[in-house]
Design a protein that fits this description.
Elements: H1 2-8, H2 10-26, H3 30-37, H4 43-62, H5 68-88, H6 92-101, H7 109-122, H8 129-154, H9 160-181, H10 187-194, H11 202-232, H12 239-261, H13 267-286, H14 291-319, H15 324-352, H16 358-395
């Protein structure tokens, strides 16, 4: 069984499923839990997410040299303990303390799986890297088909503890599965030996900024969605979960097809199309007030996020092909910073205006992401042109 899992990469897909279920049950609920369940002001959304994200990034910097398997096990253990505390919390500061001290460890879970999976895939002759990365992302997206709707269903009547205990159960299952099947590879040491100090061009930073702002826009919308649709539009309590599940269901085939489409169309062009869909989606959400309108718009959102999540990591890795560990960590931190800034911005906007206006923040973020992608394309062309004479000279 272990050899079959490792040979076909099934172990990484199953582990992505288990890990994704933890977040799919919890993350969509956090804004509603903090504001409605704990009766906290909206600005506390930013306080919570900033503390958890910063602690997760700092913790990741301190964990160099620890094997990916151990890091993953530490991460899911922290998540499980934090969720049990969440289920019994009566104040925001209890949740904040558990989030900063324990849940922040969970930030390392999926990046560690993605890093060790990519290192395994690099050693295989029959693995298409773009498709493999996309399948891992699709596995995580698959968990969001059922996770958010079930999470909101379990939490109906402000019984958030049921969702948190369910997510804690998935954390325990992921821990047991990792102990039994995840290969013991010291990802960080291996990366140090295999990765030369390849210089980082300006185009790489521009692409990283585009991915960060794409994440900011997505998180601002996702954080505002439950409180906007339930409190301001009067939708049923389970509708945000249904919207999120619908997006996940549609984005999976989009994500898988984007890997094939990237062989005929440039990944930069695909990412630009994704940001265009995001801009259209956020404009539509801002002017919509009916359930059917939100249902129609979820298809546009699914196209955006399916492409964005499907090729984002791969296009970054292609910029520094000899520094896979660095680019995987950079991608994970870009998403984390996007989560931090997106949630903090949502809380600030809602504190002074309303959750509806957070959608305008998403629109601005997506527009900035598109701008940085254009800058990336321009810088990439400039860098390619500057290298051509040197290459010709070496050939001569």
């Amino acid at each position: 069984m272990k050899s079959i899992f490792k040979q076909y990469g099934v172990v990484f897909i199953l582990l992505s499923l288990l890990t994704g279920l933890i977040g799919a049950f919890v993350n969509p609920l956090m804004s509603l839990f903090i504001v409605e369940g704990l009766q906290s002001p909206p600005i506390y959304l930013g306080v919570y997410t900033t503390g958890v994200t910063l602690m997760g990034i700092l913790g990741g910097l301190a964990d160099k040299g620890v094997s990916a398997k151990k890091m993953f096990m530490i991460a899911v253990s922290g998540m499980g303990m934090a969720l049990i505390i969440f289920a019994n919390a009566t104040s925001f500061w209890q949740v904040f303390a558990a989030g900063v001290l324990l849940l922040s460890m969970g930030n390392a879970a999926i990046p560690q799986v993605m890093t060790i999976a990519r290192q395994w895939a690099d050693e295989q002759d029959h693995i298409d890297i773009t498709q493999f990365n996309t399948r891992l992302r699709a596995a995580i997206s698959f968990t969001w088909v059922a996770g958010p709707p079930l999470g909101y269903l379990l939490a109906s009547g402000v019984a958030f503890s049921r969702s948190f205990y369910t997510a804690a159960t998935f954390a325990l299952l992921a821990l047991i599965f990792a102990m039994k099947f995840l290969p013991s590879v010291n990802a960080n040491d291996k990366a140090k030996k295999a990765e030369p100090n390849q210089p980082i061009n300006q185009s790489f930073w521009a692409l990283g900024a585009a991915i960060t702002f794409g994440s900011i826009g997505n998180i601002m919308y996702a954080s505002a969605l439950p409180l906007y649709t339930i409190n301001e539009l009067g939708f049923a309590n389970n509708m945000p979960g249904i919207f999120m599940g619908m997006v996940a269901l549609i984005e999976i085939p989009v994500m898988l097809y984007s890997a094939k489409l990237s062989k005929r169309i440039t990944k930069t062009g695909l990412l630009g199309f994704a940001f265009s869909c995001a801009i259209l989606f956020y404009i539509g959400v801002f002017f919509s007030d009916q359930v059917w309108q939100f249902f129609v718009l979820q298809g546009v959102n699914a196209i955006f996020y399916g492409i964005f999540a499907g090729i984002g990591l791969t296009i970054l890795q292609e910029q520094l092909p000899s520094r896979i560990g660095f680019t995987s960590a950079f991608y994970g931190n870009a998403i984390k910073v996007g989560v931090m800034l997106g949630t903090a911005s949502t809380g600030l906007i809602a504190q002074w205006f309303s959750f509806r206006f957070a959608t305008l923040g998403s629109l601005i973020a997506a527009s900035i992401a598109m701008t940085f992608l254009i800058i990336f394309s321009y810088l990439k062309r400039q860098e390619s042109e500057s290298q051509e004479p040197i290459f010709a000279q070496n050939v001569i």
